[in-house]
Amino acid sequence: MCGITGFVGSDGAIQIALESLKRLEYRGYDSVGVAYPQNNHIAVVRSAGKINRLLDRLDGEVPDVAVAIAHTRWATHGQPTEANAHPHRDCSGELAVAHNGIIENYDPLRDELQRMGHRFSSETDTEVLPHLIEHYLSKTSDLVEAVRLSLRRVEGSYAIAVVSTRYPGGVIVARKDSPLVIGLAEGSKLIASDIPAVLPYVKDVLILEDGDVAAITPETVTLSDISGKAVHRSPTRVGWRIEEAEKGGYSHYMLKEIHEEPAAVRNALRGRIYNDRIKLEGIPITPAEWRRFERVEIVACGTAYHAGLLGKRLIEQLIRVPTEAVVASEFRYSDPLVDEKTLVLLISQSGETADTLAAMREAKQRGAYTLAIVNVMGSTLAREAGGVIYTQAGPEIGVASTKAYLAQLVVIHLLAIHWAQQIGAPSMGDGASCSVLVNELKRLPELVAGVLQGEPCIKSLADRLADRSCFIYLGRGYDFAAAMEAALKLKEISYIHAEAYAAGEMKHGPLALIEPGVVVIGLATQPLTNAKLWSNLKEVKARNGTVVVVHTEGEAVQGGSDYQIPIPSASPSLMPAIAMVPLQLLAYHIANARGCQIDQPRNLAKSVTVE
Ligand code: F6R
User: Fold this and answer.
1) What is the tens place of the pLDDT at every residue in 138-161?
2) Cis ω on the peptide bond leading into residue 262 (within 30° of 0)?
3) What's the chain's average pLDDT?
4) Is it the case that residue 350 has pLDDT exceeding 60?
5) How far does the centroid of ligand 1 lie from the alpha carbon of residue 420, in Å?
6) Mean pLDDT within 536-554
7) Ligand 1: nearest atom to the Cα of 353
8) Which of 352-366, 401-415, 419-433, 583-597 has the lowest mean pLDDT?
9) How far, in Å, is the centroid of ligand 1 from the Cα of 177?
10) Cβ density class 265-300: b for 16+ within 10 Å, e for less
11) Closest by CA position to 217, among listed 246, 196, 191
12) Distance 402 CA to ligand 1 centre (A)
């Protein structure tokens, strides 16, 4: 989704703002722009398309200025044209605004401003902001106050950056429901929608909270709330290394992030296992409170929701508390059965997904305890939920989620085991005890690393299947949750139609799809149901579908298959974490063979900040 960057210092501002913007490319965008004070007005250069097109516009001559803001836009109101690209200026050309989010009441505001004589030059909701600020500057000479007065009129979500000739050496920023951080260095400050954008320049960041307005100069950051009351925020030291946010020799971030999975799993476990007991900081829940929960609702979107599907099974197995996994966009409007005895578990890589945030707020309002599993430090979900467990996977840049999914699975295990230990739950139905699971978790990084060694075989399989147009993923139990995620991975980066079904459902309809050329990928890692799965695959083979089976090493493959992907064996609930590695690689290499834009698939964005 859209990204904002900016620099306030002594020179090189445009260069640095655009470099930072490139680090936000992963969020997805379709137009780009930059604004900076120059000769008593605000210069704006914008372009449809990618950052390189903007550089062409600048004719390779980037003016050396001390202050600049830049923006990548992902079109919501109006086409991705130059006119609609941000930053947008007021009528006088003396101020410009870059904005992420949506101004919901822009229609009446625009009418009102037009009646006052303001002229608009775009179709965007954002353009009301510079005109509103211009309007309030006729009532106060204080730019920060004019920004505050304007924001009080606005309904919706925003992170904004404002440059103005009235504040030539600085930038004013504000946020509500859309992330913004300020990178702190001696003699300069950076702004960005996300921490990776400022990582090369700073180690300390101020993470703005909703309602914050900041006036930034090279030396100072003055924070207030929207009414003008002073606010204090402490800086956060960022633990991520810069290499973690760069491609490091891989052709795509997605491939790099798949190869980082052993480290992501290790990091998710780091500091959380002591003598086989799970210790989780950030969740102030007492054993009595753990006992009080009568229901669990796991709420998330996309890949995180698929992690939640596994969580549902695991929690029910380990804790015996009824648990549902729900997609966040459905939860909020379903009049959910949620009260003080419900634990609402929210899972999100970014911690900024609008649907998940809305669901969390709805759950809170209904009295539920909200607990978030989040990757991005200081994100809105992490701050607003009742408790947070970080997945500690490091920055995930590729739009398709990979290492964050594995880290989410690990954290769900840690949470369920921790809960079981807190209430002294007996062992799971299949006999697996918490201590067995803990030992298996400790082994997981090395199992995942082992599976990565098989990449050349997966690549040659991908080359053989890359021209197929229909993939069906089948699994039962935990394997079904994994099948859902594997199908999403393939469809989102290769644009091939891929669906997942609970294997037993095939005979109730989808079997009609099978004909030569259709690829069916069966996951056969669950001892309890494998025999049934083999029969389901036999039915596919009998109709000349191409069968690929992901199975546990040593297990005899039955039912006839064209290709096999053996993976090491572990507890049933951990098998999706292992099986997903070759399936992510398969999706990656198929997409690569088809020449797709893997890190930024068409129509998709990394952080989906609209409902
Ligand atoms: C798929 C993918 C998306 C996200 C979904 C939720 O690869 O990345 O489906 O999982 O948009 O995003 P987060 O986890 O940031 O809430």
Assistant:
1) 999 999 999 999 999 999 889 999
2) no
3) 92
4) yes
5) 28
6) 94
7) 16
8) 419-433
9) 18
10) bbbbbeebbeeeebebeebebeeeebeebebbbbbb
11) 191
12) 10
- Domains assigned to the chain: 3-245 (3.60.20.10), 256-450 (3.40.50.10490), 454-593 (3.40.50.10490)
Q: Which two tokens stand for residue 463?
A: 């080359």
Residue 507 — φ and ψ, nearest 5°? -70, -10
Q: Give distance in angstroms: CA of 74 to centre of ligand 1.
A: 17
Distance in angstroms (rounded) separating the CA atoms of residues 73 and 55: 16
DSSP letter at 542? Answer: H
Mean per-residue pLDDT, 434-452 = 95
Interaxial angle between packed helices 575-593 and 403-423, expressed in degrees from 0 to 180 and rounded to the nearest 10:
170
Q: State which of 600, 608, 609, 610 you would mutate to test the pocket of ligand 1, scoring each by most atoms of that ligand within 8 A of its C-beta.
A: 608
| Residue position matching structure tokens 């992170």 | 159
Catalytic residue at 507? Answer: no
Pocket of ligand 1 (CB under 6 A): 301-304, 348-350, 353, 356, 400-401, 488, 492, 607-608
Name the closest-CA residue to atom 3, ligand 1. Answer: 302
Catalytic residue among 176, 189, 491, 606: 606
